[in-house]
Design goal:
2 copies of one chain form a homodimer. By secondary structure, the first copy, chain A, is of the alpha+beta class. Chain A has 2 domains: 329 residues, 2-Layer Sandwich (BirA Bifunctional Protein, domain 2); 90 residues, Rossmann fold, CATH 3.40.50.800. Helix content of chain A is 39%, strand content 19%. In chain A, strands 1-5-6-11-10-9-7-8 form an 8-stranded mixed β-sheet. Chain A has a 5-stranded mixed β-sheet with strand order 13-12-14-15-16. In chain A, strands 2-4-3 form a 3-stranded antiparallel β-sheet. In chain A, helix 1 crosses helix 12, helix 4 packs across helix 11 and helix 8 packs antiparallel against helix 9. The relative contact order of chain A is 0.12. The interface between A and B is large, with 112 and 112 residues. Strand 3 of chain A pairs antiparallel with strand 3 of chain B, so a sheet runs across the interface.
């Protein structure tokens, strides 16, 4: 019989159990961090109507549509459905659709797969998990929400224990106000922001070159670089704020941006975020035209090559395509699949056991099967995840199995032990083995985990 | 501007936050139950190659394929990918593909959405979550694994607190052996099993009618009904086993089924599953031809109308389409989306708060913003999920917000309280309000949650 061949599908990552366990731990930290701040979960279907997804425009090539492989007779195999490519368009649709059932400010998190039908590239998947939080106001939304976001980022990445990181903060109104003062036309603004956002990656020279290619004078481009350069990284937060404040006569837009940034920094400090973990960085522009105020990026200090591991910002209008209500919001997104892949590849997240259970009850004596099963039940009833070895195999092979999967403890007992109402607890990490009374088993195991 | 209209997509369920919280709690119970027994997580992509999915045959109408909405120039918008319709075909492909990296017996759980492109019907979704566990052996797999499965089902549904339930157990070899002894041809066996499986739903008369429609003699059909009827529900487990054991001269197939069932029942008892929660039921046949030995269904005693809430069984060959290795397995599946929808509709799962955080810190005095934020940080650092009210609003409106979302406690403090280094803790459930020193806040809140 011909076997169907198994070739990995490029761009659709799949983990081995030991990797999946690490991934699940990261997901738990993220979810717990979101919930700690009172964000509630929602999920939207994997699909939206095509018209909803293309309403943003410009991303048709990314979108996967659904057809039925074999439709009923007389039925169109094509559907009007397509897989979502992010969680923002679905959020906008969700809020517009259910707004009368939601309480505002609406704080939600959403952890789901998204799909991008582009050609697969290194580090780019066609399927990946996004972890998003957003707070959506009705008509208005306090800047304190912008201040709260970095403390959530801080909590999550601190718990991941992946080394020092910095949350870089900017306000697009500052950039936009400054650029306007240089007479850069509004029609170029989105494109200018996109170029500025590449500054750290491609350097001043190339950015100047690209700006001139867009029709900007060299002097203007150089002025922009001087502004972003001097204020880029050399000053600490208070120096930066006082420098920016001294420039607020530039125009109202700039001045508003500086005021917003000050409120946000005050809030961040009140929330207890240590100074080392945040930084004003005027180079953070974010590529999307979507953002209107505060913007964030997060960099691992020792691994800047990984790029931003968590980004987002403030936007004035979430759902103007779907409703006349004014729905301002602020949010961030973690592209967790790529992040975990990179952290595992760089050894910042260690891949270990292929089992979530720390304890294996081995089985030496077939006549004592019932006892082994009972030991497993006893441990589980005490909340200790436990596997009982159920196959027939020599103890040596069972211990090989235990080591291969990465159990921490093996419980071993034969007729001799049972006659003494005892078992052996073997610590598979340090190799030590002790005997303990069955009545003390749970307590002894708990002590060793 | 024309707004894109929001019409729910039939068959793609979407929950409000208060419902999603209940759903997430159920998912956590299921996941925790699986992990307690040492099942490790895996995830497969939402898609498989079309050829993999249709290799089972007969379900083309269910399958959604993917196309790109707008392909690159000269590129085919059609892909060879399609959404998975269950988690068993992906598991078979996964095990075949990664078998050299896996440790056998391979114990995995998988909690993912699946998609079925059929016409939406009441109670049938096109998108839903499945929660599966399977243990896959290499060449062989102990019957003790079959015994362990019901104790996992027991733990999960007991923790859900949805009332009494019974796990019904059978072994298809018993049915097959008995039917063979009545000279029912093997070619009809799958179809006969499918009809028998409807016995409880449509009754003896209709089943006899359908069996006769397949060409069976009325006397044969009546004999089958007598066998299934007398042994169906009237006898307790031991009576049933002894009755079946007395019949083992029927043939080798029947005899083997009875022997397997006895071993499984012994194991179930050793694992501590109370007698009230399991039952041998010969009417459990399972529609799929896939199963070869033990089969399970789980019924809520007070809500039999919900049908089986968790089903599965033993199969001889997981992945024969993909590999020559013999990979027997046993597993179960919970169709959790439909289950939770039904349990919520029937009031067995109560929908409550729209927040996962129990505590809201209200904000009365703008000059004290920093203090409110600090209170929030203090509670969160103690592991208490807390939202700080960040908008400007009168206290009355903040408490309305708190009640609407279902917070348990509101922390209230104005200038007076802060001068006394104190806050008010208002219990929003019982209405009681106490004052406490800020230094005691965490402790007092913990006491009240």
């Amino acid at each position: 019989m011909t076997k169907t061949k198994q070739i990995p599908i490029s761009g659709f990552p799949e983990f081995l159990p030991s990797e999946q366990i690490v991934f699940a731990q990261v997901m738990d930290i993220i979810r717990d961090g979101f919930e700690r701040y009172g964000f509630s979960p929602i999920e939207t279907p994997a699909v939206e109507r095509k018209e909803v997804l293309i309403s943003k425009g410009g991303n048709e090539k990314e979108i996967y549509t659904l057809s039925r492989l074999a439709a009923e007779k007389g039925e169109d195999p094509n559907t009007d459905l397509a897989l979502h490519f992010d969680l923002t368009v679905p959020l906008a649709r969700y809020v517009a659709q259910h707004k009368n059932m939601l309480t505002f400010p609406f704080r939600r998190y959403q952890i789901q797969k998204v799909w991008r039908g582009e050609r697969a590239q290194a580090g780019r998947s066609r399927e990946f998990y996004q972890c998003d939080i957003d707070v959506i106001g009705r008509n208005s939304l306090s800047l304190l929400t912008d201040a709260e976001i970095p403390s959530i980022i801080y909590q999550i990445f601190r718990e991941m224990k992946i080394g020092p990181f910095v949350i870089r903060i900017n306000n697009r109104k500052i950039l936009q106000g400054y650029f306007q003062s240089l007479d850069i036309p509004m029609t170029l603004m989105t494109e200018v922001m996109r170029v500025i956002d590449k500054l750290e990656k491609i350097g001043t020279e190339k950015v100047v070159h690209e700006l001139m290619g867009m029709g900007l004078e060299e002097a203007t481009a150089q002025k922009m670089m001087a502004f972003l350069g001097s204020l880029g990284t050399e000053l600490n937060t208070d120096e930066m704020l006082s420098q920016l404040t001294s420039m607020t006569e530039i125009n109202a837009q700039f001045s508003e941006g500086v005021k917003e940034l000050s409120v946000v920094i005050d809030g961040i400090r009140a929330l207890g975020l240590p100074e080392a973990f945040f930084q004003i960085d005027l180079r953070i522009a974010r590529g999307l035209d979507y953002y209107t105020g505060t913007v964030y990026e997060t960099i691992l200090v020792d691994h800047p090559n990984l790029g931003s591991i968590c980004s987002g910002g403030r936007y004035d209008e979430l759902a103007s395509l779907f409703t006349d209500d004014k729905l301002p919001g602020v949010g961030i997104s973690i592209g967790v699949t790529r992040l975990v892949q990179q952290l595992m590849a760089d050894g910042l997240l260690k891949v270990g056991a292929a089992t979530v259970a720390p304890v294996l009850v081995t089985a030496m004596d077939e006549n004592r099967t019932g006892d082994y099963l009972r030991l497993g039940t006893e441990l589980r009833n005490a909340g200790i995840a436990t596997e009982v070895y159920l196959e027939k195999a020599r103890l040596g092979n069972q211990l090989k199995y235990a080591n291969k999967k990465g159990f921490k403890l093996a419980i071993i007992a034969g007729e001799d032990e049972f006659l003494r109402n005892a078992v052996q607890i073997k610590d598979l990490v340090i190799g030590e083995q002790i005997e303990c009374a069955i009545t003390d088993l749970v307590q002894e195991v708990q002590k060793r985990l």
